[in-house]
Design a protein that fits this description.
17% strand; 8 helices; 2 domains; TIM Barrel; eight-stranded mixed β-barrel; 11 strands; 304 residues; alpha/beta
Length: 304
């Protein structure tokens, strides 16, 4: 029992491999000045693969939690049936000097305020066991807990508290386990927050189309040394968009030529053929006459 997914940031590039994943969590914002430049294409990639999606914010906890929640909300454009997560950790310089009490206060304020803003979406908490055991004192994780551990098997975080997701590895990408029987079970749980029923996986693509997408994906990854994990894969979507624009321009040019031909045919159709022939003969004679050179040659005193 259990399903598997990943969590992505800008390090995974424009279109990380999503085939076979049941869910994906995507970093959208950090602090009040950074937005993942790839989050929208990553969201599209995950949805096309049939995965459930969630979005997370990495805090700078010296800032006001409500202001950061608003910053995330503006940029994440949260839709129904999407999860929201606070990535509650702060081991960098942007969170230096904070007491555990201040970190806890930020978490409580952020989760409470975010749930008020998005009452019909699951709002949860990501943290590692250090924060859960040593910084938290309330056990408040919003609607769900996503716990990170190192060196423990998938789905076995060694935690007594209820949890929904387990980040069990960071090699070569952050890997996660979901405590659900299937991706449909997960989507139904997400949908239960707003009373809707999620679209069954693959409804927007036929099986043949889904297989074609997966096969194309498999072909592109190793080609020419492209590396998803460093964002080196060319923007295939943009390339196809440009090609479509070129095709549209060519189609428009052909249509213009066809219009010119139609106009020419219409014009010729009302011309008297005899008059047209006479006009052409006159024009040709005039051109010949213009280029004729007259010369007088004498041979033995006689003009020839």
């Amino acid at each position: 029992m259990g399903i598997y997914g990943q969590d992505w940031s800008s390090y995974q590039g424009t279109y990380p491999p999503a085939a076979g994943l049941a869910f994906v969590f995507i970093k959208v914002t950090e602090g009040m000045s950074y937005t993942n430049p790839y989050w929208q294409s990553q969201r599209g990639d995950a949805l096309r693969a049939g995965a459930a999606v969630g979005f997370y914010h990495y805090p700078h906890m010296h800032n006001n939690a409500h202001n950061e929640a608003d910053y995330f909300s503006v940029h994440a454009q949260i839709q129904p049936n999407e999860m929201i997560v606070l990535d509650w950790e702060g081991y960098d310089s942007n969170n230096a000097g904070l007491t555990n009490a201040e970190k806890l206060a930020y978490k409580e304020s952020y989760l409470t305020y975010m749930k008020q803003k998005f009452p019909h979406n699951p709002v949860g908490l990501y943290c590692n066991t250090d924060y859960w055991y040593n910084v938290d004192t309330t056990g408040h994780a919003g609607d769900f807990l996503w716990i990170a551990t190192g060196g423990l098997p998938a789905g076995q975080p060694g935690l007594k508290s209820p949890w929904k997701f387990h980040q069990y590895s960071a090699n070569p990408v952050d890997k996660d386990y979901g405590n659900f029987a299937s991706v449909t079970d997960l989507k139904n749980w997400i949908a239960s927050f707003n009373g809707t029923t999620p679209t069954p996986p693959g409804d927007d693509m036929t099986p043949a189309e889904s297989k074609m997408l997966s096969d194309l994906h498999a072909l592109l990854v190793p080609f020419a040394g492209w590396n998803y994990s460093h964002g080196d894969l060319p923007d295939v979507h943009q390339t196809l968009t440009n090609a479509a624009a070129d095709a549209a321009a060519a189609k428009a040019a052909v249509a213009a030529l066809q219009a010119d031909v139609t106009t020419l045919k219409a014009t010729l159709g009302v011309v008297d053929p005899a008059k047209l022939e006479a006009a052409l003969v006159t024009a040709v004679d005039a051109a010949i006459a213009k280029d004729v050179v007259t010369a007088t040659v004498e041979v033995n005193g006689k003009v020839v």
